[in-house]
Amino acid sequence: FPVTILSRSEQIQDTKLRQNSIVKLQQIHQTLPDFHQVQRALCQALTFDNDVTVLSQAESVCKSLNKTNASVSDLLAYGRYLMLTQDKKAALQVLLTVLSKDPKSGEAYSMLSSLYLADNQPLEAELVLKRAMTVQPNYWPAIQKMAVFQLEQGQISAAIDLFQQVLLLTPENATALTNLGSAYLLNGQLQAAADAYQQALQTNAEP
Q1: Burial of 50 (0-12, 13-18, 19+ CB in 10 A)
Q2: Contacts from 166-174 at CB under 8 Å and sequence distance 24+?
Q3: pLDDT confidence of residue 10
Q4: How many other C-beta atoms are found inside a 10 Å radius of the C-beta of residue 23?
Q5: Cα 160 from Cα 79, distance rounded (Å)
Q6: What is the average pLDDT value for the chain, to the nearest integer?
Q7: Which residues contact 149 (CB under 8 A, 6 or more apart)?
Q8: Residue 54 gets which letter from DSSP?
Q9: pLDDT at residue 54, as a whole number
Q10: What pLDDT is attached to residue 172?
Q11: Nearest partner of 38 among 74, 83, 81, 75, judged by Cα
């Protein structure tokens, strides 16, 4: 149940909903501290939106995932924590380990693109995002990241197409709706921009 709330909060960028999922997971974790799935879910909840203020809360639970027999999901959660702490070298090694275990992990490629962008390597970032979209075509975070990248590069029509693709996969994605509105605005499509912005506001306003 808390994981479902977290997934929805990620799509609609609802901070309150995200916090509710964290509180519920922390309550379960206090009762069952060795429950592995809760450890991973809590690490994911604390790190998925790159909020550095939660680092102190995330440290112990995220580090507990770094074991010899860690699963791909464990390593991805731990890798996201390492990225949040700016330990790029360790994060890179973790992501490469993930890809050795699962060469079709769109999430790993998407995270790798963030490392490249942080290191001012846009071409490499674009290449791994394309790889993510190839190996996992419906992984919307990679598509959304590529759309933002294209928007920043002035490839407005291509960005619009990708934002629309994201919204087919996640209709309540407030970030995609807002970015789509911005792309329409830059493209001179004023009514379409207004409609997208209004839909994003309605999505955020829903309970």
Answers
A1: exposed
A2: 166/140, 169/138, 169/140, 169/143, 170/11, 170/140, 172/8, 172/11, 172/12, 172/203, 172/206, 173/11, 173/12, 173/140, 173/144, 173/203, 174/11, 174/12, 174/13, 174/14, 174/200, 174/203, 174/204
A3: 54
A4: 12
A5: 30
A6: 86
A7: 122, 125, 126, 129
A8: G
A9: 72
A10: 86
A11: 74
- Residue 116 identity (one-letter amino acid): Y
Closest CA to 18 of 55, 183, 166, 26: 26
Distance CA 98, CA 7 (A): 22
**Pair of tokens at residue 23:** 């509180």
* Alpha carbons 98 and 103: distance in angstroms, whole number: 8
Nearest to 37 by CA among 6, 74, 80, 78: 74
Residues, the chain, total? Answer: 207
Q: What confidence score (pLDDT) does residue 33 get?
A: 76
pLDDT beneath 50, residues of the chain: 1-6, 8-9, 11-12, 207
b/e string for 134-161 if b means 16 or more Cβ within 10 A?
ebbeebbbbbbbbbbbbbeeebbebbbe
